[in-house]
Amino acid sequence: MAIQNFVDYVKICCRSGKGGEGSTHMMRNKITSKGGPDGGDGGRGGHIIAVGSSQKWTLLHLKYSKHVIAGHGGRGSGNHKHGADGIDKIIEVPLGSIIKDAETGEVVCEITEEGQTTIVAKGGLGGRGNDHFKSPTNQSPEYAQPGQDGLEEWKIIELRLLGDVGLVGFPNAGKSTLLSVVSAAKPEIADYPFTTIRPNLGMVAYRDDRSFVMADIPGIIEGAADGKGLGVRFLRHIERNPVLLFMVPADADDIVAEYRTLLNELEKYNPEMLAKQRILAVSKSDLLDDELEEEMRAELKKEAPNLDPFFFSSAAHKNIDKLKDLIMSAIEDANPDTGLSKGHFAPLPPPLVK
Ligand SMILES: Nc1nc2c(ncn2[C@@H]2O[C@H](COP(=O)(O)OP(=O)(O)O)[C@@H](O)[C@H]2O)c(=O)[nH]1
Ligand SMILES: [Mg+2]
Fold first, then answer.
1. Is the Cα torsion angle 241, 187, 262, 224 positive or negative in sign?
2. Distance CA 161, CA 200 (A)
3. How many separate domains does the chain show?
4. What is the CATH number of the domain that holds 110?
5. Which residues of 209-218 are buried (b: 16+ CB within 10 A; e: fewer)?
6. How far is the CA of 234 from the centre of ligand 2 (A)?
7. Range of the domain at 179
8. Which of 119, 169, 275, 330 has its CA at 20 to 30 Å from residue 354's CA atom?
9. Among 170, 189, 198, which residue has the most ligand 1 atoms within 8 Å of its CB, making it the best to mutate?
10. Tell me, what CATH number does 216's domain have?
């Protein structure tokens, strides 16, 4: 999938249908020349309805349809005939979509399940026909209600991938490599920053037929939370992951400082991110021999006694199983009631086509 096709944010104008007007018809036929009112009600205007679909992976299909418009309700007619309801407009959204009001930022709904439906903009009510307005003093009202106007509202749809553990690190930390080693996902990997230009999810098989979902997002760069670079756009994808795995490569100049910068960026983006379970891991530990690793541990301990970073190497497959244990127990700690992840398992995106 090309980058520009991975659309995870759209702003659309939802216009629901106007209700049909009620009829002011009076009954007339061969034997009744001056019958009473028999005008039917107008039909309701069409709704704009969002439906969750596991067949959609992005919001691309909504990117070029800025205006989403539902049909108007039909007018009522004689003989108490109800007007037809306006045609609803259905928009399919991927699981993990969040719909917000563009003006207030208020969350309208969050779609996480296949077939889940929500009315995003309600159609106007149909007007009532003259029959409803009969009274002892006015037996043949020539009045009927007009239909209620539809709504015109801007909505934002955001896609957040759902996973259990999110990888956080600068570009080149080895995030995508780790995902490719522990899951069947095939993320882009290369020795230059910003290889990963869209998020990747991988299902990681664990012991006893259990599994968790790992989310690899493009690397965070300093200033990401202020909107610099690619980083911030993707932070929302790990906003709901209960566990974050921070990765700093063994050849970093200053591991503790890098970790603090990452924390800082996350906090600037959303302070709640720091309430999650965190693991700090030093990746690419194959670059260190045992002696050097010990030295580094001792130094880190001196500098930040509480950090206790975990060393692993995807390339040498060193400590990978232990890392999985660590992640799984963090997921369990995050969701103590069930012992299982509360993160919904989002469908995996289709394989990359380059
Ligand atoms: N020596 C070593 N290199 C690694 C390891 N993991 C990843 N790399 C290399 O580091 C570079 C960046 O890796 P990548 O997974 O794309 O990093 P990302 O930007 O964090 O996703 C690539 O050249 C990888 O081959 C590792 O465990 N050891
Ligand atoms: Mg990557």
1. negative
2. 9
3. 2
4. 2.70.210.12
5. eebbbbbbbb
6. 12
7. 165-334
8. 169
9. 189
10. 3.40.50.300
Q: Is 283 in the pocket of ligand 1 (CB under 6 A)?
A: yes
Give Cα 47 distance to the centre of its chain: 22
Is 287 within the bounds of a domain? Answer: yes
The last residue of one of the domains, among 96, 129, 159, is: 159
Backbone angles phi, psi at 342, to 5 degrees: -90, -15
* Same domain (yes/no): 289, 202: yes
Mean pLDDT computed over every residue of the chain: 85
259 domain-assigned: yes
User: In this structure, is residue 330 part of a structural domain?
Assistant: yes
The per-residue pLDDT for range 175-209, each reduced to its tens digit, is 999 999 998 877 777 665 555 666 787 888 888 77
* Cα–Cα dist 46/91, whole Å: 13
* Nearest partner of 20 among 46, 38, 2, 1, judged by Cα: 46
Dihedrals phi, psi of 255, to nearest 5 degrees: -60, -45
Which of 92-96, 319-323, 329-333 shows the highest mean pLDDT?
319-323
Q: Nearest C-alpha to atom 3 of ligand 1 is from which residue?
A: 284
* Spatial separation of the C-alpha atoms in residues 196 and 66, rounded to whole Å: 28
The reply to whether 321 falls in a domain is yes
Cα angle 140, 141, 143 (rounded to 5 degrees) comes to 155
Tell me, what's the pLDDT at 150?
96
Same domain? For 222 and 311 the reply is: yes
pTM: 0.67
